[in-house]
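Box 3.1 A note on notation
Throughout this textbook, protein chains are presented in two layers. The first layer is the amino acid sequence; the second is a token string describing backbone geometry. Keep the layers aligned when reading.
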Amino acid sequence: MSGGPATPSPYEGGRHVPNILTVSRLLLAAAFFAVLSPWQYEKSPAAGGDGVDWWILFAAALFILAAITDALDGMLARRWGVVSIFGRIMDPFADKILILGAFILLAGRGFMMSIEEKTPIPMSAVTPWMVIVILARELLVTSLRAVVESEGKSFAASASGKWKMILQSVC
């Protein structure tokens, strides 16, 4: 869109859709955590070469669905001109919960494998130091956002922030 008025919502009540998507991302993240938390690589059918691990695929589907809501909520809010304070606060919060939770779980015990009683090795490419770096970056940005927003200025998501979320989701 090039400076013109926002396209109105296609139906009554559409102004709440972006916020509903944001809240649904939090619920999907909770479901993703609940599915992935008890999972252990060593007990996975895929680890034993016995086939597809439907449990981990279900967790991946929940994550992908949550990531799609991130792409949709901001796009719809801007297109319909319904950007809200709730959305500006909760959208990045929901992103952080989803991404940080996923990285923490991927760096956790469930994704470790022991070979002949030796030190466990990670089965995901995520290691604890990576989680620390991502967490530190998110805390810094959140702190900066709070300072800027407290001065009455907007610290809305930028294109680079959206690309960062896409890259983290793919990882």
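Residues 18 and 163 are 19 Å apart (CA to CA). The radius of gyration is 19 Å.
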